[in-house]
Design brief:
Helix 3 crosses helix 4 and helix 5 packs across helix 6. The strands form two sheets. Strands 1, 10, 11, 12, 13, 14, 15, 16, 17 and 18 form a ten-stranded mixed sheet that branches. Helix content is about 35%, strand content about 25%. It contains twelve helices and 18 strands. The radius of gyration is 24 Å and the shape is elongated. Bound molecules: pyridoxal-5'-phosphate. The site of pyridoxal-5'-phosphate has 12 residues, from helix 9 and strand 9.
């Protein structure tokens, strides 16, 4: 093995999750798989071909850099949409290659118009509406001017979408705010229509909105986290369980984690009682101890806050991380494991024997969400697809 650690992606799990989310769409809306953040840590180049096998043909990225990576691997029929960053210098590439992109400022709108005119090719744009999240989008005040501009230069645009994003559809705390956003969005769509602007897609829903606010599904959905087998929040997971019970279906987790993270034992050593392990004095042995090192550390996204706190699986047993997590290594206490050997498989996230270590068990412990932990997995860890 050339690398010290690797990530396995389960094709079956991905297939299951896509099917589950598609089942929630009653009206045949287009399914865009969000692959920003290096496909939530799963690897853009690795995940796209697998998703395409299961019928996904629309991918959402954050930046033009991610769009270029996606564009290199997507099949001919698939589309790429940029939700966030695109520099003016890159507009030509995007327009030339039929990449659609969000527009939320006049600056970008007029730049797109100029480039499209020069290339004699329409820019495929998504007009983003500010409906209450207060992040990006045209505000109420700008709307009329924006619609006028788009109508006037309509020869240079294809209105691929009118869209917005909700400020936390995964939590009941935001219920009123989300309701207001939905109403405001629908009003904006009506206004656009009265100005003669009818988009190919109205789109607003992320994973949580698909699951909890069916009316937000409209013509296209942008599903991220659920593809990878995670509920957007514990609250939505609980809702799902309750809904299943009501329908008389045995409650089971319908989303299955796609990713496993593995490494191997690098060395095994014996340490007497009363010795400190690794840097400093954070862990003192109180018995004769067998320790093993694993060549993974915070330089790989295994956070330092898991020092003396994390667990990994070895020989189907849960064993503790002892001492501080180093940049490239961590130490585990393997005293209770029978004959640990160099080269044995170590599971950081995933299943071994009957046991499982979830991302959220790790996430809760370090107070970071699934989203954050996944997005922090470095792109230099090799990804491979298993069945
Ligand atoms: C990240 C993102 C999504 C997907 O959100 P999930 O909660 O992962 O489903 C959808 N739309 C936009 C604009 C996003 O930034």
């Amino acid at each position: 093995m050339l690398h010290t650690t690797y990530i396995e992606l389960s094709a079956k799990a991905l297939q299951n999750n896509i099917a589950y989310m598609r089942d929630q769409l009653s009206n045949g809306a287009r399914y865009s798989m969000v692959i920003k953040g290096n496909a939530y840590g799963h690897g853009i180049e690795t995940i796209i071909p697998v998703a395409e096998r299961f019928g996904v043909d629309h991918f959402s990225v954050f930046s033009v850099a991610e769009a270029r990576r996606a564009f290199r691997v997507v099949s001919k029929g698939s589309e790429v949409m940029i939700l966030g960053w695109i520099d003016k210098d890159e507009l030509e590439w995007a327009i030339q290659n039929n990449i659609s992109f969000y527009v939320f400022t006049f600056d970008r709108l007029s730049a797109a118009c100029r480039v499209a005119r020069r290339l004699k090719k329409r820019a495929r744009i998504h007009l983003e509406m500010e409906t209450g999240m207060h992040r990006t989008g045209f505000s109420e005040k700008e709307m009329e001017k924006m619609f006028r501009y788009v109508s006037r230069y309509s020869a240079h645009f294809t209105i691929e979408g009118i869209c917005t994003h909700y400020a936390g559809a995964e939590s009941i705390n935001n219920y009123t705010r989300i309701r207001k956003q939905i109403a405001s969005f629908n009003e904006n769509v009506r206004r656009a229509k009265s100005e003669g602007i009818v988009p190919r897609y109205r789109h607003t829903a992320c994973s949580a909105a698909v699951l909890r606010y069916p009316e937000t599904v409209m013509d296209l959905v942008r599903v991220g986290i659920a593809n990878y087998g995670f509920w957007p929040s514990d609250e939505l997971r609980m809702n799902h369980f309750i809904d299943s019970e009501k329908k008389g279906v045995a409650p089971s987790d319908q989303l299955i984690r796609v990713l496993s993270w593995k490494s191997t034992v690098m060395s095994v050593n014996h340490v007497g009682a009363g010795e400190y392990i690794s840097y400093g004095t954070t862990y003192l042995t109180n018995r004769d101890t067998t320790i093993a090192t694993v060549p993974v550390g915070y330089g790989y996204g295994y956070t330092r806050t898991l020092s003396n706190m994390g667990h990994v699986l070895l020989h189907g047993k849960r064993v503790r991380v002892v001492g501080t997590v180093n940049m490239n290594m961590l130490v585990i206490d393997v005293t209770d494991v029978k004959r640990p050997r160099i080269g044995d498989e170590v599971v950081l996230i995933g299943t071994q024997g009957d046991l499982d270590i979830s991302v959220s068990s790790f996430g809760d412990m370090t107070n970071s969400l699934n989203y954050e932990l996944l997005a922090r997995l470095p792109s230099h860890i090799p990804r491979k697809v298993v069945d």
